[in-house]
Specification:
alpha/beta; eight-stranded mixed beta sheet; about 15% strand; globular; about 325 residues
Length: about 325
């Protein structure tokens, strides 16, 4: 019997995401973010999403600015050197439209590792003595969201315990597993049946993908499955963990994709400067998302010359034409 194809369009893939879902992403801040999907989430006007990730970035800022997100759990959000602060997240937090729960970087890694292993929590000593572990800053608890009615939200932000095995002195922190409904990943290559290959930094992609119930993979290239399996140690995720695959070249723009193209810093800096107010964000989204019917149309609007400037040299794996520094 023929295997069911996992290929679908970007619009079809976004229809797999429900309002209120807990979602997470591949990549890190401004690298390998699934922007083609993010723009389509905004077009389809998804609401009350619960974002959970190690470090958020430009993609998170767009979803928050568009009013798609109700809860954000992360350790940081911004655009690195192209805009240090997540201005949209800050604005929505101040207005009460966004609930933000703060964990440390290590805590978030541990939470996704627990989710990937299928255990309810993992122990750590990270952030002992900091206000991240101050019960007064349990924001989800303050909003009454830890009442057990949502199986994705743990009843406690953390728990202090003592070592039951060696009797070591001092507190051990247990942090709860991250259990997202959906992980959306942008990668360099995926096989026709879903085997995932990532070049360069892998960040916490494996943990994020394995922790999620449903996995959507957008790839620069869909390649023959029998070819990608010839070197199994180079692959990150087996095919059976992936539910949907989409081929979309340049699908991470304006974030970068190692070996394929650079971060479009000028584009991100422009987004950051123009979206510090809601009026500014609305105008930006109208121009770059809502009046653009597809990601291909978006790339046409970006223009060949700009994309060619960002394109990585196949030997160096980075663009030799992008000007860096002062």
């Amino acid at each position: 019997m023929a295997k069911k194809s996992k290929r679908m369009s970007i619009k079809e893939a976004v229809q797999l995401i429900n309002d209120g879902d807990m979602i997470t992403f591949s990549g890190f801040t401004i690298w390998r973010r699934p922007m083609a999907i993010v723009y389509e989430i905004v077009r389809q006007r998804k609401r009350n999403l619960h974002l959970i990730e190690v470090n958020s970035g430009t993609h998170g800022e767009i979803l928050i600015g568009a009013g798609c997100v109700k809860v954000l759990e992360t350790c940081w959000i911004g655009h690195e050197l192209y805009g240090k602060v997540g201005a949209n997240a800050a604005r929505k937090l101040k207005s009460g439209e966004l609930i933000v729960e703060d964990y440390s970087h290590v805590h978030m890694i541990m939470r996704f590792a627990a989710g990937a292993m299928g255990v309810p929590y993992l122990p750590t000593r990270a952030s002992l003595g900091t206000d991240i572990l101050n019960p007064e800053y349990d924001v989800l608890g303050k909003h009454g969201l830890r009442d057990g009615s949502n199986p994705r939200i743990p009843r406690r932000k953390f728990e202090f315990l003592t070592d039951p095995f060696f009797g070591e002195q001092g507190d051990i922190i247990h942090v709860p597993a991250a259990r997202p409904n959906v992980c959306i990943a942008h990668v360099q290559q995926v096989g026709e049946e879903g085997t995932v290959r990532v070049y360069g930094q892998r960040y916490s992609d494996a943990e994020a993908i394995k922790a999620a119930d449903k996995v959507i993979v957008v790839a620069e290239e869909i390649v023959p499955e029998e070819v990608i399996r010839q070197e199994p140690t180079a692959n990150l995720i087996p095919h059976y963990l992936v539910d949907a695959i989409i081929e979309q070249p340049w699908g991470a723009h304006p974030t970068g994709c190692f070996g394929y193209y650079e971060v479009d810093g000028k584009f991100i800096r422009d987004f950051y400067s123009k979206t510090k107010t809601q009026e500014g964000f609305d105008a930006w989204a109208e121009e770059w998302i809502l009046k653009v019917n597809s990601f291909d149309e978006y790339l046409y609007k970006i223009g060949f010359r700009r994309l060619d400037l960002l394109r990585a040299n196949s030997s160096y794996k980075y663009s030799t034409r992008v000007k860096r520094g002062a």
